[in-house]
Amino acid sequence: MQRYKCIIAYDGTSFSGYQIQPEGRTVQGELEKALGKLHKQQAVKVTGSGRTDAGVHAKGQVIHFDSPLNIPEDRWVKALNSMLPDDAAILSVEKASPDFHARFSAVGKEYRYKISLDRTKDPFNRNYVCPFPFTLDLEAMEEAASHLIGTHDFTSFCSAKSEVEDKVRTIHSIKLFESGENELTFQYIGNGFLYNMVRILTGTLLEAGSGKINPNDLPKILNSKNRDMAGKTAPAKGLYLWKVFYDN
Fold first, then answer.
1. I need a surface site. Which of 78, 101, 130, 228 has the fewest CB within 10 A?
2. Active site residue 153
3. Is residue 155 a contact partner of residue 227, using CB atoms and an 8 Å limit?
4. DSSP code of 137?
């Protein structure tokens, strides 16, 4: 059996999330269906670097699977893409060592969140950016973000539905930059992120930029370990899993 590492991209709009579910269309389900066809209907399990919710997109999700088939990497890409739906794609396939694990070998991730500051409704962007047609104080947002960088207990920025006990994570950087006309992107790089953490961080920074939260209150919000103290959860559609980092 050979282990393969794949980088995949998908438009999360019509998926019920990444992880396979009893009901609902999922990215993992489509991948395993395509691999099943290549393996003559034998089940092939796909393991991802992590879950993404319904509506969340990915530019650089990483998966791995094991296969007895001896197929060149470029042929894997062509074969799988011919069987996947149009809203999911294999970007690359490479052989990996038997101990490589898409989730447990990861040392960090980059997420990006896109908002539109356009005052006019754009029907073509409705599934890919979060509309926020209000004036923002970027300096206040950057000041708020500076308090979030480093190693902290992010209980206040995690969904109450999370079953993870250890909520300590390290954020290496948070950057805000213009990514298009009237479009602002939030870039988050860290060693890992909790359930809904990026969306809650974004909602909180937007409230800081709107004057609803004082940037200097961020340490107090962190130390409270109380989800109710942080901002609203930003919608899923503006979120992208951009890249997964590994030691090599």
1. 228
2. no
3. yes
4. -
Residue found by looking up tokens 């559609």 in the block: 237
User: How distant is the alpha carbon of residue 216 from its chain centre?
Assistant: 27
Per-residue pLDDT tens over the stretch 35-91? 999 998 889 999 999 999 999 999 999 999 999 998 999 999 999 999 999 999 999
**Residue 160: predicted pLDDT:** 83
Tokens of 175: 């950057």
Mind giving me the DSSP string for 141-194?
Answer: HHHHHHTTSEEEE-GGGS-TT---S--EEEEEEEEEEEEETTEEEEEEEES---
Rounded CA-CA distance 70/75 in Å is 10
- Tell me the torsion sign for CA atoms 94, 95, 98, 99: negative
Q: Name the active-site residue from 11, 53, 87, 217.
A: 53
Q: How many CB atoms lie within 10 A of CB 127?
A: 15
pTM of the entire structure?
0.95
- For residue 100, give the amino acid letter: F
- Burial string for 201-224 (b: 16+ CB within 10 Å, else e) reads bbbbbbbbbbeebebeebeebbee
